[in-house]
């Protein structure tokens, strides 16, 4: 067996969750010299801070050193502030996607550079492979846990230095490994999707961190007939039916949000369906750029189904996406990710 001095070093993002803990174990089994790096994103003043103790306990049980990377400023800039600004525009953002690209992965790479470590790793369910000089992002084999959707904004540089130890495992296998190691699986938390929002209360965080509080406005139909009044547009999202505060003669859904006029537009479920959209803020992985029409499969939300579509370049950072059939609740601000077979072509933000 190699000594630690002769093993390839890898800096692993250790969150304290089950997946990253087992990722560390698997890397050690592959004879990597694993160093733990915990990304500190934000502080909660109203909750007891026992996370450090839990992280140290996990690191000690795995016999790996642990470093903390303070990314509070970057998290505020790229995630929290963006989240608030997008909701102010009537959009519904994906904060985890920006966090991965600009905070977590970049924070790990910056520390890795300072420590002269070539590779980083995380507990995501995905894979990376190299073909013809380009790095591809491939789906994890566990279809229910595949997280490639959340990683589509990673750069070629980031992918070239990233290992995903869990990419060829199913979640049940990871839980079994944890039990075999004597970990109390129920004691190790699952990662949260929107970690900085308590009780899914988006309205509170938007108003807490904004100098200008949201004002009430009209709820209207497509003909601009006033049907009621809302309490602030950040309380609502496309496709929402419950929580409007009114009983209508027929089922009504939020079909659009007009931030400029501070209006929430409602309509029938049929009005939720669209067969095309515009996406911008593009990031390409499998190709350098898009210069002609291509056929792909596309997902407009993480838990959504992949649908056949055609991408049509409009300008450098914008594409038109035409689906083979109408898609329900296409939501501005959400990410759309393009796939070919089992790898990510690229993606962008729905506008």
TrEMBL record:
<feature type="site" description="Interaction with tRNA">
    <location>
        <position position="124"/>
    </location>
</feature>
<feature type="active site" description="Cysteine persulfide intermediate">
    <location>
        <position position="195"/>
    </location>
</feature>
<feature type="domain" description="tRNA-specific 2-thiouridylase MnmA-like central">
    <location>
        <begin position="207"/>
        <end position="268"/>
    </location>
</feature>
<keyword id="KW-0067">ATP-binding</keyword>
<feature type="binding site">
    <location>
        <position position="123"/>
    </location>
    <ligand>
        <name>ATP</name>
    </ligand>
</feature>
<dbReference type="Pfam" id="PF03054">
    <property type="entry name" value="tRNA_Me_trans"/>
</dbReference>
<dbReference type="GO" id="GO:0002143">
    <property type="term" value="P:tRNA wobble position uridine thiolation"/>
</dbReference>
<keyword id="KW-0808">Transferase</keyword>
<feature type="binding site">
    <location>
        <begin position="13"/>
        <end position="20"/>
    </location>
    <ligand>
        <name>ATP</name>
    </ligand>
</feature>
<dbReference type="GO" id="GO:0005737">
    <property type="term" value="C:cytoplasm"/>
</dbReference>
<dbReference type="InterPro" id="IPR014729">
    <property type="entry name" value="Rossmann-like_a/b/a_fold"/>
</dbReference>
<keyword id="KW-1015">Disulfide bond</keyword>
<protein>
    <recommendedName>
        <fullName>tRNA-specific 2-thiouridylase MnmA</fullName>
        <ecNumber>2.8.1.13</ecNumber>
    </recommendedName>
</protein>
<feature type="region of interest" description="Interaction with tRNA">
    <location>
        <begin position="145"/>
        <end position="147"/>
    </location>
</feature>
<dbReference type="InterPro" id="IPR004506">
    <property type="entry name" value="MnmA-like"/>
</dbReference>
<keyword id="KW-0820">tRNA-binding</keyword>
<dbReference type="InterPro" id="IPR046884">
    <property type="entry name" value="MnmA-like_central"/>
</dbReference>
<comment type="function">
    <text>Catalyzes the 2-thiolation of uridine at the wobble position (U34) of tRNA, leading to the formation of s(2)U34.</text>
</comment>
<comment type="similarity">
    <text>Belongs to the MnmA/TRMU family.</text>
</comment>
<feature type="site" description="Interaction with tRNA">
    <location>
        <position position="334"/>
    </location>
</feature>
<keyword id="KW-0694">RNA-binding</keyword>
<dbReference type="Pfam" id="PF20258">
    <property type="entry name" value="tRNA_Me_trans_C"/>
</dbReference>
<feature type="binding site">
    <location>
        <position position="39"/>
    </location>
    <ligand>
        <name>ATP</name>
    </ligand>
</feature>
<keyword id="KW-0963">Cytoplasm</keyword>
<dbReference type="InterPro" id="IPR046885">
    <property type="entry name" value="MnmA-like_C"/>
</dbReference>
<feature type="active site" description="Nucleophile">
    <location>
        <position position="99"/>
    </location>
</feature>
<feature type="region of interest" description="Interaction with tRNA">
    <location>
        <begin position="301"/>
        <end position="302"/>
    </location>
</feature>
<dbReference type="GO" id="GO:0103016">
    <property type="term" value="F:tRNA-uridine 2-sulfurtransferase activity"/>
</dbReference>
<dbReference type="Pfam" id="PF20259">
    <property type="entry name" value="tRNA_Me_trans_M"/>
</dbReference>
<dbReference type="GO" id="GO:0005524">
    <property type="term" value="F:ATP binding"/>
</dbReference>
<dbReference type="GO" id="GO:0000049">
    <property type="term" value="F:tRNA binding"/>
</dbReference>
<keyword id="KW-0819">tRNA processing</keyword>
<feature type="domain" description="tRNA-specific 2-thiouridylase MnmA-like C-terminal">
    <location>
        <begin position="275"/>
        <end position="350"/>
    </location>
</feature>
<dbReference type="InterPro" id="IPR023382">
    <property type="entry name" value="MnmA-like_central_sf"/>
</dbReference>
<keyword id="KW-0547">Nucleotide-binding</keyword>
């Amino acid at each position: 067996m190699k000594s630690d001095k002769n093993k390839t070093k890898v800096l692993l993002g250790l969150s304290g969750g089950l997946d990253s803990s087992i990722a560390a174990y698997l890397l050690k089994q592959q004879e990597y010299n694993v160093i733990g790096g915990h990304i500190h994103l934000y502080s909660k003043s109203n909750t007891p801070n026992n996370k450090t103790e839990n992280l140290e306990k996990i690191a000690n049980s795995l016999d790996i050193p642990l470093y903390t990377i303070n990314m509070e400023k970057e998290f505020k800039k790229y995630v929290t502030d963006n989240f608030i600004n997008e909701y102010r525009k009537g959009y519904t953002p994906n904060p985890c996607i920006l966090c991965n690209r600009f905070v977590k992965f970049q924070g790990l790479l910056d520390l890795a550079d300072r420590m002269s470590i070539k590779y980083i790793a995380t507990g995501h369910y995905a894979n990376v492979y190299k073909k013809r000089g380009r790095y591809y992002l491939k789906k994890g084999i566990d279809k229910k846990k595949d997280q490639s959707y959340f990683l589509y904004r990673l750069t070629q540089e980031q992918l070239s230095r990233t290992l995903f130890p869990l990419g060829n495992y199913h979640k049940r296998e990871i839980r079994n490994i944890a039990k075999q190691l004597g970990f109390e699986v129920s004691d190790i938390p699952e990662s949260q999707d929107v970690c900085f929002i308590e009780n899914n209360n988006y309205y509170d965080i938007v108003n807490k961190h904004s100098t200008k509080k949201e004002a009430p406005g009209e709820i209207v139909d497509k003909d601009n007939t006033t049907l009621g009044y809302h309490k602030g547009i950040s309380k609502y999202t496309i496709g929402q039916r419950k929580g409007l505060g009114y009983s209508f003669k027929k089922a009504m859904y939020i079909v659009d949000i007009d931030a400029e006029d501070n209006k929430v537009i409602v309509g029938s479920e049929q009005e939720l369906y669209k067969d095309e959209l515009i996406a911008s803020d593009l990031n390409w992985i499998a190709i350098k750029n898009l210069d002609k029409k291509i056929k792909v499969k596309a997902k407009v939300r993480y838990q959504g189904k992949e649908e056949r579509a055609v991408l049509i370049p409009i300008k450098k950072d914008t594409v038109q996406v035409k689906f083979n059939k109408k898609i329900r609740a296409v939501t501005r601000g959400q990410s759309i990710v393009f796939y070919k077979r089992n790898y990510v072509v690229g993606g962008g933000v729905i506008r």
